[in-house]
Task: structure prediction
Amino acid sequence: MKKVLPSLLAAASFSLFAAPAEQALPAPARTGGMPLQQALNVRKTVRSYKADALNPQQIGDLLWSANGVNRGNGKRTAPSAVNRQEVKLYYLTAQGAFFYDPQDHQAVKISDEDLRKWAGVFDAPLYVVLSADLKKAASHHYAVMDTGYVSQNIYLHCASAGLGTCAIGSFGRIKGSQKGKLLHDKLKMPETEEILLTHSVGIPAEE
Ligand SMILES: Cc1cc2nc3c(=O)[nH]c(=O)nc-3n(C[C@H](O)[C@H](O)[C@H](O)COP(=O)(O)O)c2cc1C
Result:
């Protein structure tokens, strides 16, 4: 008992002080931003970013715009074939890797590791990983299309919010990435989930 007690106390104090895996994101801005025609007019791919980290409001607004819940019936800012809602979002920063839970608009920490270098070759403060739950998807073909809508939401949100982004289909070609398997495994995805695209995001560097 003498030996067991200290380790029990240590475990209890760890669980009292360990950061919870779920972190609420600030409520998303559902109004404002740039008029749509203006956002379309300035939408473009940006591959160079300032080092500044994005704040939680910027991250929450980006994820909500990409594929958040925008109605009481649980449907999303992006459409999905047969309403399967199979596209899942993760984001990667210097602080670790997080899953975006759209129903509760919260981040769930998956890893303390900085995984950005496996998502793209650009020096960006944030990467978004777009995957599809193929068990939910109406088909692989539709999963790919549904991912495209989320990607365009990211592009338009970034245009409106003064952020820069690049869709990256070549993430699987990063040296050592094992064709994306390494990122897939580090994000603890099941075999039935597939990463289809990543996006680098940050404040555009001066041109
Ligand atoms: C599905 C998809 C995959 C892409 N993959 C890459 C990529 O791997 N690397 C890259 O630098 N740009 C990538 N891009 C960005 C395109 O190169 C870019 O959209 C195109 O050059 C047109 O430029 P714009 O977006 O500024 O109009 C991708 C874009 C899309 C839509």
